[in-house]
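Re-running Putative 2-isopropylmalate synthase to confirm reproducibility after the cluster update. Everything else is unchanged from the original entry.
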Amino acid sequence: RSDREFLYEILGVVIEAGATTVNIADTVGIVMPLELGKLIVDIKDNTPGIANVIISTHCHNDLGLATANTIEVEEYSGMHLQPHKPLVGANAFVHASGIHQVSRILYMLCVAI
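Result of re-run:
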């Protein structure tokens, strides 16, 4: 939902200022898995200094896609995943919304190997 060019620019600025980790968040839980994977690829291709930092993601589960989004990002980048217990970080705008469960992600990664 953010302007891509602005996103690349602001990420470059924080990296230049000394950031060692940048986090790409879907705090409203509406991004689709392929869309998030492409965003990560685009960030890696268009952000100065991105190769020198850790890219992290944070996905909410409003549409039930947080686990799929997390797996997609891992597939595209092998980057840092933020595991959380069920329902931690509930979204105030959607009842019972939570963040992906680490056990499901680990299981999916093991099955895929």
